[in-house]
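Notebook, bench 3.
Goal today: get a predicted structure for Cell shape-determining protein MreC from Aphanocapsa feldmannii 277cV so we can plan the truncation constructs. The sequence was checked against the plasmid map this morning, with no discrepancies at the termini. Length recorded as 249 residues. Pasting the sequence as submitted so the record is complete.
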Amino acid sequence: MVQRLPSARPRLLFWRRLPLGALLLLLLTLRQHGGLLLADTYAILTRPFWPGTAQSEWLKRASTLEDYQRLVYLERENQRLKRLLNIRSSSPNLVTTPVIGRSPAIWWQQMILGSGGLDGVAKGDAVLGPGGLVGRVDSLTPTTARVRLVTDPGSRIGVWIPRIQRHGLLTGVGTNRPLVRFFNQDPGVVPGDLVVTSPASTLVPSGLPVGVVQGIPDQQPVAEAIVQLSAPIDAMEWAKVMVDQPGQG
C-alpha cells in the first residue's frame, strides 16, 4: 500500500477563500510592525551587554573629573588675574608695562615693552617678571623699550648664592636655562640653591630673585650650574621696570 503525502491543496484553498481586503490588511500590518519586531528581538539579545553599574560609575567619575579640571582651570585664571592686579598696584618706582613684541627667531634674547622714555624708563633699568629678574632695558624710544633678557648669550649679570655665600656670573646661552659660572673651581653649590642678584653688582639692584640651581654639568673646565629661572620668560604678558635706580653701570 502506497502512503500518500499530505496535499498542499487545503492551504491554497485557505488563501483563496481569504478576502482580498483582509489579505492586504495582513500584509500592511507585517510591513509596518516588522521593524519593531526586529528591534525588540535585538534589544532582548543584547540586553546582557547593556551598561551596568560599573559603566554608570565610570560615567560619573568622568563627569566629576571634567568638573574638577574646569575648576582647576578657573582657579589658575583667578590666580593669574590676581598677579596682574598686584603688578598694577606695585611700588611707585616700578613701571608696569605690557609685553608687546616677541620674535620666534630671537625668543630667548629680547622682548619689546609698551613703555619708554615718556614713562620714565631708562637704558639699563632692571626688568622684572612674575617671580624675578628677566633682563635689562637695552634701548628705548619715547613709548617702547627693548629688553635684553638674561637668557641672551650676550647677557652677563652678577649673582649670589646665599647658602654658600658665593659670587657667580649669570650667563645666557640662548635657551630657557642660563648658567651660573663661578669664580671658584669647587664652590659647593647643589641643586635647589637659591640664586639672587649679587650685592656687588653695579648693573642691577642686589637681592632680586633670579631662580634656583637645577643641575650641575659634569666635567666642565669651569665650575657651572644650570639655573631654573623664577620668572616664566616664555609666557610673560606683563613686566615691571625698576626706574630711578641708584648706582647703575
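The longest helix spans residues 53-88. The radius of gyration is 38 Å.
Flagging this for group meeting.
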